[in-house]
Write a structure and sequence with these properties.
By secondary structure, the protein is mainly beta. It has a domain at 14-61: Beta Barrel (OB fold (Dihydrolipoamide Acetyltransferase, E2P)), CATH 2.40.50. The chain is built from one helix and five strands, in the order αβββββ. The chain has one helix at residues 3-10, and strands at residues 17-24, 28-32, 38-42, 50-54, 57-61. A five-stranded antiparallel beta sheet has the order 3-2-1-4-5, with no helix packed on it. A hairpin with a 5-residue loop joins strand 2 and strand 3.
């Protein structure tokens, strides 16, 4: 029994989020999420590109697709 592995399983994973790059800096970008929120994240991407963001870092390019917000 590995207590660390069991403890780690209790912590939820960070969500993968879709965002558009609105400003590019050196090794960081400012992104805007579909709801209007913004964040400064680690990573490199082109201006106006759509990216996947998780835990404050760009994970890769995302397809440029229409986004519909549904409130629950």
């Amino acid at each position: 029994m590995n207590l660390y592995a069991e403890f780690k399983d209790l912590i939820p994973n960070a969500p993968l989020q879709y965002a558009r790059v609105i400003a590019v800096g050196s090794y960081e970008c400012r992104v805007q999420f579909p709801g209007g929120g913004q964040a400064l994240v680690r990573g490199e991407a082109a201006q106006n590109a759509t990216v996947w963001v998780r835990d404050g870092a760009i994970e890769g390019n995302a397809p440029d697709m229409p986004v519909h917000l549904i409130e629950i």
